Amino acid sequence: MGGKNRELTPEEEAAELAKPGAHPEWETDLPADLQKAIQDYLEGIRTQVTYLDCLWDELYGSINANQWGWEITKEQADYLRAKYLFEQEEEPFLPIDSML
Fold this sequence. Notes:
The protein is mainly alpha-helical.
């Protein structure tokens, strides 16, 4: 067995999420509240806190607030949501009007 099909430990999962993604430039110079929300979420994953859903909500809200406050771009917000909050293997969301 090569170990490729095993589940990641919480420490490994947090470390994987913390690695720079496809757009590392979108992960630098973030507003302080957003950076704190990311760090708190990663620490929650690593330590398996019982309130991870609250940290998830906090991160989601911080991304949204910074997007709508023009602190980060929509593309940057979408990237951060996809990287930290949603499974990256999913197909990209298509707006309903694109199906018409």
